[in-house]
Write a structure and sequence with these properties.
alpha/beta; globular; 9 strands
């Protein structure tokens, strides 16, 4: 059985974690060698994909700006080239329109606040380019704060940026942010936000995953959490992860009250994933799997698309 729709909050397909950025005008959105490609999305399923411009930590200042601009142009070029397959979207109404035309909905995001190059005046530039979510940090430090391999919180500039990003309509994404940084953000954020690709730390003790207190606070704030398919975030050691490991995270999130906050955040083309989910065309198997494991139809569809749909109808406007 195929679900009506799938909404995936994060993939690295556009930039391929640096692979494509060294090869201009490579059609990364429709490359059959990748985990996710337009021609290999499941038939008969409406798909909404959040495409991240991943900016490596070593790029700062003007280098980060140029990287962002080059990949924004690539997203625009490819969505024009494949206009019969994909529509660039900024709002929920745009996503619904893409689905009505049997096209994939493509939403542009940025992974790494270094895209701002330390300048708050770049926030409206990102918004004008169609960026709808910003992952505050990647693993290391940038001008806004610290990622999960460091232990500082948000910088003074990062604390200034939070309300400015919200005002500009750019959703905050706390995946990769370390605990101190998330604590700082919680004191400042006034709107619901995202953890686009983060699992439960109690199930897999990786710093990239959310602890129980964080999960409960995100639930309280009506945030959205994307289940990450990465082996290393599904089980300790990252070896031989499978659907049952994903289910352990689902069950833990549900116990913490996150039933209507849980979505998908595959991390495709940025990591290694279980073979059962090795390419995007396999994702529909999750519907039957979840039903076989005892979830109701509403709970399974909630994870695959309905929870995200509800969130974006309110927050992607």
């Amino acid at each position: 059985m195929n679900p009506y729709a799938i909404i995936d909050l994060h993939c690295d397909t556009l930039t391929g974690c640096g692979y494509y950025t060294k090869r201009p005008e490579v059609d990364s959105l429709n490359d059959s060698r990748r985990m996710l490609s337009l021609d290999r999305l499941p038939q008969g399923v409406h798909w909404a994909q959040f495409f991240a411009i991943f900016i490596p930590d070593e790029l700062r200042g003007q280098d980060a700006v140029e990287f962002f601009e080059a990949n924004t142009a690539e997203f625009q070029r490819q969505t024009r080239k494949y206009a019969e397959k994909i529509s660039p979207c900024r709002t929920w109404a745009d996503i619904a329109g893409a689905w009505a035309g049997n096209r994939t909905a493509g939403i542009l995001t940025v992974e790494n606040g270094s895209a701002l190059a330390g300048k708050l005046e770049r926030i409206p530039v990102l918004a004008a380019a169609g960026v709808r979510a910003l992952t505050i940090t990647w693993n290391g430090e940038n001008e806004l704060g610290s990622g999960n391999v460091t232990d500082h919180g948000l910088s003074p500039l990062g604390r200034e940026a939070i309300p400015e990003l919200e005002q500009a309509g750019i959703l905050l994404d706390v995946s990769h942010l370390n605990d101190a940084g998330l604590d700082d953000l919680l004191k400042l954020a006034q709107k619901p936000f995202l953890a686009t690709h983060s699992n439960a730390r109690a199930v897999c003790p990786h710093k990239r995953n959310l602890n129980d207190e964080q999960i409960q606070e995100l639930v309280r704030r009506d945030c959205l959490i994307g289940l990450n398919f990465a082996n290393c975030f599904l089980r300790a050691g990252g070896e031989h992860a499978g659907l049952d490991d994903l289910m352990r995270h689902v069950e833990h999130f549900f116990r913490l009250g996150a039933e209507t906050n849980l979505a998908l955040g595959s991390d495709y083309d940025g990591t290694d994933v279980p073979p059962e989910l090795g390419t995007a065309e396999k994702v529909p198997v999750l519907l039957d799997y979840f039903l076989d494991r005892g979830l109701t139809q509403a709970q399974a569809e909630g994870i695959l698309y309905r929870n995200a749909q509800t969130f974006f109808q309110k927050n992607l406007i």
